[in-house]
From TrEMBL:
The keyword ATP-binding applies. Pfam families: ABC1. InterPro entries: ABC1_dom, ADCK3_dom, Atypical_kinase_ADCK, Kinase-like_dom_sf. It comes from the Bacteria. Keywords: ATP-binding, Kinase, Nucleotide-binding, Transferase, Ubiquinone. It comes from Allokutzneria albata (Kibdelosporangium albatum). This is Predicted unusual protein kinase regulating ubiquinone biosynthesis, AarF/ABC1/UbiB family.
Length: 438
């Protein structure tokens, strides 16, 4: 029915290969130490090789393994580009390669979720899916009142695969720490589990979408389609036509690219204050430009819950880095658990690591380019560089996981757009803690 491997033995064997490979590398490391290689060199190589295997194995599975891999990909800059690039490519293929469910199966799910008389709720229903996602597919239909609607149907078995993978991945939590020694893995996995399980219940996604639609109602810049009906494995919302962001990335004009970049940035920074939520799936397929110039946003399964808006700490960290206040920066990082209390890092090294990332906020307008992003990835993934050593001892507190994912994903899209954006203006307006304190 789908490409989600559901046999527990098959999935467990794939995931179980991870610690076995890691054990082999540890043994090899002892051998290299005997012939004179430094422990730092061996540790860096072990981290890179483990990341390579983790990414390769996760990339072969759907369900929870793939979703965990997507979340883990925010750390991919910690490994060399030649390892991360094939992993990104594998995930992209997986996201787009899901086979369409047979019409009979779709109808069965609709009957289970919307009732046996589900057909009466629609004036028409297209059995050929209009789009596919990691755990479901979307059909175009006409609601009984004449409205064009999008009907999202979850793949049968997606929940079983997701939960099985999460159980296996939690057993291997020690292994993932090899990627970044400073990372507190167990609470991070717990946060991932909670967010991923939410994605299985489309009623939660529908509630998220309703909150966004209310927060951006009649907005002059952003459009969120309204929800028409929802059930645990089906959600129906208004159909919207527009130019996909991927098309703008491919052949948009300079003005179209800049406008899309501005609106994407505005949406992500303003949403937490306006809705208490952060859209946590920054993928070009989830955004489109409407004929009137507004940005339409879809797919609200993954969100970060921020009832108080964006964390004040992030604004302060960005400002301290821009102002070059290395000692204050390290003190705040320790207080907020981004650095362990006993981690001995030079404050200047920490500042050097962060400063280039906040560069876009220091100028009135900043041009996001692929070359700029590649230079950042190369800088922090150079196994022999100071930034790689610094980055390996930084921790990501669980409550910042999705924020970090959105930030990295959004920056990636901005660089694909080659957009010039008034980022500082947006951050000053919507990011608490960024404006200078008096």
């Amino acid at each position: 029915m789908t490409e989600i491997p559901r046999r527990a033995v098959h999935r467990t064997a794939k995931l179980a290969s991870l610690p076995l490979g890691a054990a082999g590398r540890v043994a090899a490391g002892w051998g290299k130490r005997l012939v004179g290689r430094s422990s730092d060199e061996i540790s860096a190589e072990f981290s890179a090789k483990t990341a390579e295997q983790v990414f390769a194995v996760l990339g072969q599975l759907k369900g929870g393994a793939m979703k965990f891999g997507q979340a883990l990909s925010v750390f991919e800059a910690a490994v060399p580009e030649e390892m991360a690039a094939p992993y990104r490519e594998a995930l992209t293929k997986l996201q787009s390669a899901a086979p369409a469910l047979p019409a009979k199966t779709v109808h069965r799910v609709l009957a289970e979720q919307l009732g046996r008389s589900w057909e009466k709720r629609f004036a028409s229903f297209d059995d050929v899916p209009a789009a596919a996602a990691s755990i479901g597919q979307v059909h175009r239909a006409e609601w009984h009142d004449g409205r064009a609607v999008a009907v999202k149907v979850q793949y049968p078995g997606a929940d079983e695969a997701l939960l099985a993978d999460l159980r296996q991945l939690e057993r291997f939590s020690r292994l993932f720490r090899a990627l970044i020694p400073g990372l507190e893995v167990k609470p991070l996995l717990a946060e991932l589990r909670e967010r991923m399980v939410e994605e299985l219940d489309y009623r939660i996604e529908a509630d998220n979408q309703r909150a966004f639609a209310k927060g951006f109602h009649d907005d002059e810049h952003i459009v969120v389609p309204r929800v028409v009906a929802s059930a645990p494995k089906v959600v129906v919302s208004e159909w919207v036509e527009g130019t996909p962001l991927s098309a703008t990335i491919r052949d948009g004009t300079r003005a179209e690219r800049d406008a899309a970049g501005y609106l994407l940035s505005l949406f992500h920074f303003s949403a937490p204050e306006r809705t208490g939520l952060l859209h946590a799936d920054p993928h070009p397929g989830n955004f489109m430009t409407l004929p009137d110039g507004r940005l339409c946003v879809i797919d609200f399964g993954a969100v970060a819950r921020l009832p108080e808006g964006l964390p004040h700490t992030l604004g302060v960290l960005s400002r301290l880095a821009l102002e070059g206040r290395s000692e204050d920066l390290v003190e705040l990082l320790r207080r907020e658990r981004f650095l362990g209390q006993d981690t001995d890092l030079d404050p200047q090294d920490v500042l050097d690591y962060f400063a280039p990332f906040v560069e876009p906020m220091g100028a009135e307008r900043f041009r996001f380019t692929r070359s700029w992003l590649q230079s950042q990835a190369e800088r922090i993934s150079n196994l022999r560089g100071a930034d790689f050593r610094t980055g390996r001892f930084l921790n990501l507190p669980p409550n910042y996981l999705l924020i970090h994912r959105v930030t990295m994903g959004s920056i990636g899209i901005l660089c694909q757009l080659d957009a010039e954006v008034a980022a500082r203006e947006i951050v000053l307006r919507w990011q608490p803690g960024f404006a200078a304190e008096h």
